[in-house]
Amino acid sequence: MKPVDAYFLEQKEPYRSIMLYVREVILKTLPNVQERYSYKIPFYNIGKKPMIYINILKGTDFVDVAFVQGILLEKDFPELQNYNNRKQVRSIQIKHIEDLDEHRFVMLLQAAGKQLEQSKKAWFI
Description:
Distance between the termini: 35 Å
CATH architecture: Alpha-Beta Complex
Strand order of the largest sheet: 1-2-3-4-5
Number of strands: 5
Largest sheet: 5 strands, antiparallel
Radius of gyration: 13 Å
């Protein structure tokens, strides 16, 4: 079993279901994305550049779907939050699967993928 698979299966509900659903939408929407296990969490890269990571932050009750270049997307996608005062990363917090608007999430994934492909590097701040 791959480490990323083990990570998802080790999560408690409802987090496991949320993460597996988000993973499915990411992989279906972005066929060129590569799933990796880095820093003990799942990352989704385009080429060698990280685009998204999924995590449950300590002391929270949601799945944090974080976009590495989220600061460049927040104008068009106001659902992206600057959680915990991060310089560049913006994320959506999901407490229940029903909270995720799949159509809007797909649009966000496509915009993030296009943005990252045009960038020289993922971390710029």
